[in-house]
Amino acid sequence: MEEKDPGNVFPGNWDVVSETLLRTYELWFPQNWSPVDLPWEACDAKNFSSDEAVAQAYWLSKLALFEKSGIGAFGSAAVQAATHNFEDPTKKFLSAVAFDECRHDEVCRRACSRVCPNFPYKFKPKTTLEEKAHANIMALYDNGARYWSAFNQAWGKYPLELIFSSFFFAEIGAQLIFKEVGERSTNKVYAGAFKNITRDESRQLTGTLAMLERLAERMSKEEKSMISRQLKHGFIYLSPLLFKPMNDFWKLPGDFFEYDQKLEEIAAKSGLGVPKVEDRSEAWMKAITRHRSKIEELGIPVPEIKEIGLAGLEVSVKKGDEIIATPL
Ligand SMILES: [Fe+2]
Ligand SMILES: [Fe+2]
Hints:
Structural class: mainly alpha
Largest sheet: none
Number of domains: 1
CATH superfamily: Ribonucleotide Reductase, subunit A
Helix content: 55-70%
CATH architecture: Orthogonal Bundle
Strand content: under 5%
Oligomer: single chain
CATH topology: Ribonucleotide Reductase, subunit A
CATH class: Mainly Alpha
Low-confidence stretches: none
Mean pLDDT: 93
Bound molecules: fe (ii) ion
C-alpha cells in the first residue's frame, strides 16, 4: 500500500488567500485582554454560602470541559494546518483560537480556586450537594475522554477540510449563550469575563465561517452533507452546557440533570448569570436562524434538531456513535 505523505511544517508559506480570515486574525491583537486584570476581589468564598460557592464552581467546571477540548482541538488543528501547508492566516487564526480557549479556561480555573478551592480535581465533598456536583463533573470529564480519543483519531480518517469546517457551529451557540451569561451576571468578575469571552467567540465565529466558505468551494455535495452530520454532532456534544445532555452520546448518572438544574439555579441567583434551559433552547434557535441562509448558500443543509424545534435535513445519530468534532 502506498504510504500517505505525513507532511511537514517546512518550508511553510506566507500565502494569504482569504483576506477575511487575515483581517479576522489581525483583530486578535487589539482585542487582546487579560483574565489576570479582572476585579477578582468580587469573586471570593467569603461573599458566598458554601452551596453558592460549589454551584458557581460546578458551572465553571462544566464550561471548562469544553474550553479544554477547544484548546486541544484548535491546537492540534493549527499543527495539522501547518503540516499540510494551508494558507498562512489559517495557521495563525487557529493558534490564536487555541490561546483564546486557554484564556477562557483560565477564567474558570481562577474563579474555582477563589470560591471553591480544589474544585473539581482535588475536592473532598462534605454535603450531598457538593458530592453530586463533584460526581456530575467527574462523569462529564469521563465522557469527555471518550470524545477526545475519537476526535484525535479523526485526523487520519477524515479529510482535514471536513474536520475544520465543523468548528464554526460551536461558535454560533457559544457567542450567543456567553452574551446572555455576561448580561445576566451581577457579579463583576463574571460580567466582565463573559463580555470579553463573547467578543472572542464573535471573532472566532467570523473566522471559522471564513474558513468554511473557503473550504466549501472545494467540497463535493456528499462532503457537504457530511458537514450537516457534524453540525448535529456538535449540538449533541455541546448539549450539557448549551442545552441539556443528549443521551445519544452522554452517559451520565440517573440524577445528573436533577442536580445540574439545582446547581445552575443557585449559581444564577448568586451572580453567575447562567440562562435557564428554555432560554438556552431559544437562544440556539435564534442563533442558527440568524446564520441559516449563509450556511445554505454554501450548499450545506442545516440538520434537523427536533429538541429545539429546528427543521432541516434529517440526520440519524445512533447511540454510541463517535462524535468527532466541534470544540468550543
Ligand atoms: Fe472558549
Ligand atoms: Fe470558542
